[in-house]
Amino acid sequence: MSIEESVLPAELILQVMGHLHDVADKNTLLSFSLLGKIFQKDAQRRLFSSVELQYAIANPSLIQDVSTKAGNFLRTLNDNPKLAEYVHSFTLCLLDWSGWSVHFRPGATVYTILPQLTHLSTFSITGTSKRSNDVYWSSESLPVKLLQLVEMTLRTRNIESLSLTAPLIFPTNFIASCLTLKNLTLSTDSFRFPLHAVSPDIQAGPPIYLTSLVLQTGIRHRPTYMADFIAFFNPLLCPLSLSRLTCLDISGCKASFLNNLLTLLSICPHDLQTLVLPIPPGGMFILWSNLETLLIS
């Protein structure tokens, strides 16, 4: 195996380099050059492992890149397409979302970047909104092309962690498309009843077994959000299952959420191992004989 193909840990290489004193020696300089390639590849993996693209309102009806980061990243991918394989985590951040007719600028970088990220395991959509009422992520408020692109990405990548915390009501298919999903983070702004049933081919497929569920209180208060959330676990609407859930985190919820805590816990398995709550739960946690961690935030 050549030095270029070496998988030696960076710490060991640093120790070897620490014993090299005569840097004027030609062979030593050559060694440094070859080692540099190893450091370069490792640095690229670290640098491109996680990517966040931010988009903001340019005018009342147009979303555009909020900085040059997305454009620079796209140019980097064009120069070295292999770097796309290093990206395992992608975050789409929508800032100051407002209005019902918000559209991405034609040719927005997200349309070109997202299809190239074929090794994603974590996908997130975050953001802020200026609206006090519900905003739907739908073909009426976003171009169908972006809707289909996100759904295709979630369905064709091995997404294990999905986070939907932007103040938008997302299509049920976004979650149902993640056939390898294990970790789900939702805001109470992210769902609302009645939910649209998923497509028949997804209904006919196997259940999606979650192992970790994180629930956060959104910016809008809605008395029915608990019932809306429970509806997610109706197999006719979305094939999610909590039967293998080991971690439930609701520390990001308001204290009033605990009024519905028993309703939520009633659909959780008894082999739950980690439970994270915003305030002490009294003696309710004794229902889980396998509970290993109880955290109070």
From TrEMBL:
The source's domain of life comes to: Eukaryota
Q: What is this protein called?
A: F-box domain-containing protein
